[in-house]
Each structure stands twice: as C-alpha cells, then as structure tokens.
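Q: What does the assembled structure look like for these inputs?
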Amino acid sequence: MITFIIRRLIMTIFLLVVVSIITFAIFFLIPRLAGQNSYELAAQYVGRNPTRSAILQMEAKLNLTAPLVVQYWHFLVGIVAGTHYNSGTSITYCAPPCFGYSFRSQQPVWPQMMAALPVTASLALGAAVLWLVGGVAIGVLSALRRGSIFDRLSMGAALAGVSLPIFFTGLIALELFSYKWQLFPNVQWVPLTTNPLLWARNLVLPWITLAITYAALYARLTRAGMLETMNEDFIRTARAKGLRERTVVVRHGLRAALTPILTIFGMDLGLLIGGAVLTEVTFSLPGLGQFTILAIQNQDFPEIMGVVMLAAFFIVVANMLVDMLYAVVDPRVRLSLWRCSRSATCACSSVPTTAWSRRWTGCRSTWSAAARWASSASPAPARA
Amino acid sequence: MRRRRTLVVATCAVLAGLGLAACSSGSSSPGSGSNTGSSNSPSFNAALSGVVNPSTTKGGTLTFAMSSTPDSFDPGNTYYDWTWNISRLWATPLVTYKSCPGSCGLQLTPGIATGLGTVSDNGLVWTYHLKQGLKFEDGTPVTSTDVKYAVERTYDRSVLANGPTYFPTLLADPTYPGPYKDRSKNIMGLTSVTTPDAYTIQFHLQHPFPDFNYVAAIPQTAPVPPDKDTGSNYQLHPMSTGPYMFQSYSLNTGATLVDNPNWTQNEDPQAKQLASKVVIKLNQNANAIDSSLIAGDIDIDAAGTGVQAAARAKILSSPSLMKDADDPLSGFLWFTYINTKVAPLNNVNCRQAVEYAADKTNQQTAYGGPYAGGAIASTVMPPNIIGYKSFDLYNALSQPSGDLTAAKAALKACGQPNGFTTGLAYRSDRPKEVQAAQSLQAALARVGINLQLHGYPSGTYYTDFAGSPNYVHQHNLGLDMGGWGADWPDGYGFLDEISNGNSIAPSGNTNIEELNDPVVNNLFAQAANPSLTQAQETAIWPKIDMQIMKDAVILPEVYAKSLLYRNPAVTNVYVQDYYGMYNYAVMGVSTSAST
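A:
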C-alpha cells in the first residue's frame, strides 16, 4: 500500500512538471515561435499608452529577456523554495509554494487561489452529494423498473439535464427563484465560517444547477450498469439462495455497478474542485473557476500556471483516492491490489474486463485495472 | 484614453512642437457647482438634466456591482472610466469636475487645491495652492509633498503600470526613475515638481500646455503620504482623502468602504458622505447585475456602460422600469477614418462621396441601435464636449440613409464617376464593428465604391495595422474604422490627437487619416495663445471640427450612448457629463430600501 502511494505521488509530481512545461510553452514558447519578442510581451502588462522606457522597465522586472529555460527554472524554484518580490517600497518573501506574482495585479498568486478554493470546494462538494445521491438513486430505480413510466420520465429528464447548459439553467434558476419569487434573494458568496445558514442558502441554487447536469449523467450511467449487473449469474445465485430483493439490489447489484461510477466521480470531482467555471461565473461566485477566467482574459501567466497546476493536482489526487476506494466498494480488490502493485504486471491489455467497464472506465491505472479484473473474475460472495 | 474608450493613446509627445503659452484658467469658488441641477422626479432620462431623488438623509448601504475587476483602486495606477469615477469616494485630486447634471459637469473646479492652477507668463510653470486643514483618513495633514510624491510614484511603470503617462511626457525631467529604485536617493527627487511651502506645489513643464488643469484633474494627483505608500500593495488600502475609506478589500471579490472620519463636507463640496457604507462587488455576472438592479438587490452597475441586451429589451418595453433608466451620451464617437494618402481618397471629392453615400441608420443599428448604440453623428466632437456645435455638412441628419445623388456628383468631381475600390480595416473580434463594416460596404456599393474588408485583431489594430501609415499605404486601406473618446472633455482633448498634423506617427498613429491641413494646424496653434479668454479658446474648437468635416477625413457614425438603470432606492442620482455615467461621488440610498 505504502509503495503504491509513494509511486503514485512520484507519478503525480512528474505529471505536474509535465503540465507546467506544457503550460509554460503555450504561454511563452509558442508566441516566441510566432515572432513575438519579450518587449512585445512586456507591453501587454504596462497598461495603456506605455512609453518605451516603461515597457523596458516591465520587461526587466518580469525577467522576460532571460532564456526560456532560465525563466522556467526560476518559476520551479519559486514553487519549491519560494522567492523574493519587490513591491516598490519593500522586499517581501513569497513562501513556497510560491506561484509567483500576478503580472496584472502584482499580488502573489497562491493566496488568491487559496481564497478562492473554499468557494469552489463548497460548491463542488455540495453539488457532488446531490448528484451522487440523486443520480444513483434515480438510476437504480429506473433500472429496476425498466420500461415503466418512471423509467421513461426520469431518463427523458436526464437527457434534458445533460443537454441544458449550466449558464442557461443557472440564469433561469436565478430569474425565477432569486429575482421573481425571492426564495433565494441576492445570491452571493458567504463563507461557511461567517454564517453557515447563509452559506447554505446562497449555495442552494448553484448546487442544484450544477448537480442537475451531473445527476442526469450519473442516472444514465447507473441505470446502464444496474441493468447489466442485475443480469449477471451471481445475482441469480443470490436470489436463488433466498436473499431479500433489497439485499440483492443494494449489496450485490449496486455494489458491483458502483465501480465505474466511482471512477468517473473521482475525475468529475477533481475537475470541479479545479474550478466550476460556468457555475461560478453564472452565480458570481468568487471561486477558482472565476479566477481562471480572469487569468485567461488578462493573459496573466502566473495566475494561469497556478490554476492549471492546482487543477491538475486535484484531478490526480482525486483519481488516486478513487483507486483506493475501490477496495472499500469491493473487498475482493484488496488482495489483487497488493499482488498487482508488487508485481507491476497489471497492464491494461492483460486484464480481463467486462465490455461495460471498458466502455466507461478505460484503462487508467494498475489499481483500477486490478479492481475491474477482480470484480469481473469472480462474483461477489453472497451471504446466505 | 481611459480603458473604456478603447481607441488609441493620448500620448502627449506631439505637444512638444506646439510652442504654446498657456491660457489662464480662470477660477471658481469651491462648491459653486455642487449639485446645481434641478431635482427631477423619476422618469426616463430624468437624471440627464436634474437630480433624481435628491436627499440629504444619512444612512444605508450603497451597493455597486461590477462585471470585472478594476485595473487598480490605487488612484495613481488606474485608467478606467469607472475607476476614475468611483475613486472620488476615497481620492481627491488637485482639481476635479463640478458635481452637477448636464454640461455643468464638464467644468473644472478645485479638488484639494484652493483654485484652479495659475500659469507663469512663459506657460511653463503651473502653480496650485492646497487647502489647509485637509487630512488623510488617519488624521495626518495633507501637504504639498504628498501631492508631489503621488506624481513621483507614477513614473515607475514597473510598479505602477496602468495609469496615464501625462506627467513623464509633459514635465521637465522625463528620465526621472521614480521613487522606488534607489529609494533613499530618488524619493522627492523629481525636480520638475517643486513645493515652495507645505501648501504650494509647482509643475515645471517642458513645453507650454494650456490644458494642464485637466491633467491635474486625473486621479494621479490625489495625495499619497510617502511613509504610507506600499508600492504595488497600495491598491489594497489607499489612504483616503475622500468621504469614504477602505474597511476591507479582497482582490477579485469586492471592497467595503466606511465613513472617513477626517473628511469634511465643507472642504470637499463635490462629494457627499450620505450612505453609511459602500459595498463594491466585483466579478459579478453581467446579466445577473442587470437582474439584481431591477430586483433592487444592488444599486448601481459600476461599469456605467449600460445594461445587457436582455435587460435592455425588458426595460424599454416596460414603462415602470423605463422611468428609472437613462440614456446618456458617453462622450465617445464611433467613426471611420478616411485616409488622405491612399488614392483615390487623396482627392477630397472622393472622400466626400463616402460621406454622402454612407447609410447612417444602418451604422447606428450595427452599433446597437439608438439606445445602446448611439445617436447619429454629423460632427467629430460629440455634444458633451466643450465647444461642440451642431452642423450637418453631408446631410447625415436630414438624409440618414445616404444622399446618393450628392455622392454620385462628388464621384464625378473626383474623376471616378463609376466608383472605385479601396480597403476597409476593422477589428474582426468586435461583432458590432464587423457588422458596421459590412453595413458600410453595402451602403457604399450603391454608388460603385467597392470596399474590400480587412479584419484585424483589436490588440494590435492601432500598433501594427490601422495605426501604421506604412501598412495602411501598402495595403490600400483607404478606410479604417475606429472609435475615440478623450481623457478630458474639451476640443483640444478630443481633436488634437486625431487631427493635428503633429500627431502623425510611424507607429501607434492616432491621426490615422494622416490629415496635415494647415488650417487645422493653425487653429490649434491659435487656441494655445495665452492671451485668449476661455470663451475665445472654446470658439475655436467648432471651427476645427468644421474644417475636419470639410476635409472629409472622418466619417462620423454615432455618438455613443448607453442605457443605464438606477435602482429607485438610490438618492442624488444624475449623469455626470464628463464620465457619461452616474456621479458615484454624491450618491446616497434610501434607508428604508437599502440593501
């Protein structure tokens, strides 16, 4: 287990470095290849009507004349060891992880991201609970009542939920529930620590708006998974042993169907904590998504780099956690995981998977591959 | 040029050749212009000519919302219209604009100075005397060294990158590095600004500049105490000299302002301290701002650029909402340059053919219609510029769809009776401008003028394309679309950069039509004569405007407008003509309805 985590952490660092190189290259290398020089780049950060000397001052301050490799190295060193910054009247130390100072606001990037993180985390986690509970419940019920009116209606609604963009449903929700009926008036961000009730009240609409899209997807995924699982031999065996239907469905059917749901949930949650862009912009929530939009609009490299790295980090960590959770969902995974992580032979192509699990999960990691292999190789033991 | 007025840059380097002596600026007693407009009951456009909901009631929270973020709340480091407007809540410059509706709001009046600046006989030294007894929010007295330091710090663009560059361009020692580098040596080292005593400050110019009082009205002259300056962090808590001071400010999220206990109404009659608290919400969804305004959740959209399309339709179709709306001129002009060096437009008759043939109604529609786009223009100066005079040389108002008969006659006189082909440059990432370009192409085609459209990115439009005469000539760009608004509202501020022959530059050119008409140039020189009275100087601007139109080098399209909505709970509301938006410095809020 420890070996596995260490390996994954090393992989995470490697991945983050690769992401940072790509981002850096997009920002600095590609424009340079297209003919832009450091002077022209600096001119973007000197406001309107800059004089030549003003641009040169900015070029020097941002160290844009240094070779790209040196610039990148300084950036990396700043993250690991921190850096010093001249605010004009004083030299301040930016402690690690220092993602530098915004080219525009000249304020350190990391505190800004940390100020935005609770907003995004509040939004993403709250919505995740809603869509996971709602989506899975609807999916299970639809699968169990396949062809019923409920099934048709819920799947139709799910299709609509997936199809409607958040900026549309969000504005409609605001117009109806906030402005017209005043059920949630004056929606704005209130920190949890300031007033938990207001925090929740102001997030109800964003949660629901965001959850609708994801719940619809999860309902369809769960339904498909349940339909396939409930036709497996081990479900028939469980029923033949005389288990109650609820036990069969929840402890055997749903549990087996949850594996791919968990996989995609990890990916979704990681992505959202990196910034729920549309929802945050629609509801004017000062989270990482809104921060990202501003950074891109301003072509503010340190901010863009910071938010990309943070998002990548969350995605990687969320996936790692999901891999570990496979063992919770399916206890049989544990032995296989140990074996797999020690032998490192769990290549994707060599692991037998069901068509359904391949479709939704692909081959992501040794651990998840092992989990799929384990779940398909032997049915869940039914307890009589 | 403030950020909303997106065109070009009002660099002042060209002023060097003017050789002007400054005109006297006159004086005005403090407070003479404060809220002199009549009070108007709420109705459409009521806030253009009078004060809506006049009140002296103290209390409540005044809430502004903004769809983006400021370039900075540091008065020395900002170049947006709305930040200049809202910064009056915490920063009082040497000179400011009278707080009053209508054209009264274009006039200068003292800020922290006792009067407008007085100029030396040679036009090179401007002197201001400061009011005594003024204090920063912490009770420290305001002195002339604080104003000098405020100007000094704007020289270091590596720390304060955003503000205008008038001082380094106009003042006598342009190479001063600013007070931050080698601080012990350079602080208070700007030799072109002297402080003979604690309440007197003098600006020494390289060349006479009669409009210097307008430069002194830029927020960059708001005093900054040297020992409280925190460089690039000063934006987080500027030391207030206005009616409010920062209680908190979270970058990208918003700010809360509370009463400045050391501000007095008597010393600053152009501002008020009515609300108990001012909240500025940043990064709010633009459509949500409109809905919140209408729902009464916020009081004013700080951007001042008008509501979005959805709210516009809602307001214009509802009399009950429309009574709380206004449709002011922004002071901005949308137009097309007609280049004098690209054949056959080097012939004035061909240029006049373009003026006659353009369909102004379609151009107006392209820019957003009469409410959000603007009013059809027939002059270069918009009506809310000092010196504006209405005239209509090319029947833009009488025949807004175009005078094709006159256009054909002009083409014949030009020697191109069947028309000609030329290029039209526009910014391809601006949908309204794209539509305007296509509309102009269709209109001119009616008389045989074939426009070849060339779209360019707006980021480099004025540096690499339309603003580069060589590029314009090489690519036969006879017409170039653009927009213009001045940093100060007089004829000089509006016309000089776009029509004075001295303004033609090889890159970043603002005189894109490349007009070098001796008549125009001489009129500018006359206006700089120090012996002229204000009225005589003002009388010159319409003459220049008329001559530019006779030369047919600018095709005016619309005087830009925006549809603003005011929460009925807001008190003391009126449009300040200088900003083309509500005057944020004097507003209050009804305590019974405050948010």
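Chain B touches chain A through 52 residues (CB under 8 Å).
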